[in-house]
Model the fold of this input.
Amino acid sequence: MGHCQDAEALQEEKIKSLLQQVSTAQSARQFPRAIKLLDQIEKLDDTVAVAFYRRGRIHFQQAAFQESVRDFNRYVKLNPKIESRQWERGISMYYAKQYKQGASQFELYQTFHNQDVENSVWRFLCMVPDSGVAKARKVMLPIENDPRIPMMKVFEMYRGTATPANVLQAVEQGNPTKEVRATRAFYAHLYLGLYYEVTDEPKLARKYIELAADPQLLGHAGINSYMWDVARVHWNRMQRKNKLPK
Done:
């Protein structure tokens, strides 16, 4: 009995050490190394839920969308109570072209946080391939008070009651500091780019996604680094598509 307990304790320590190494690798953006470490954890114990969550995020950061969804699904299966919070899973589903599943994930997230414009927008984006812009616009998840400027204007733009110019005007509201303006502009540019893409304005889509994916914005205190990676991944995808033979 004692030997079993010792072995379990050693394995727990090994997994703990590996997770710490994963954090270090992630901070350094050494994604392949982080994946290898997480693979080791899975071999030691395939019930460590957080390992699948982390690997799901890293697979997305490497544009491995199907693998990302697979890991997020494993995470949810091991820890069902967190399913409503998995907005990252919804984004991976969108890029993996699992649009219906992505829409369902964002609908579920709405029960966890019902004042997040980004959630409503991503559900809209998931609906467009099957329903078209007009229909998806009519059934957008309702948002009344996302306090982040210019997110309510972004919501109104997707609803069809505001213009891209209104979104950009909102960025300048209240004479923001340079840092605050950079935060506002990032979110404005990301969602303008996505908006122009689904409304078939490819040049404008490229313009704004490239602005959002500016490497100088990585590490900005007001910008969610994972969302910056969404912009970067999207921009890289745009560039690859542009290089494909026609």
Notes: The CA atoms of residues 29 and 87 lie 21 Å apart. The mean pLDDT is 95.
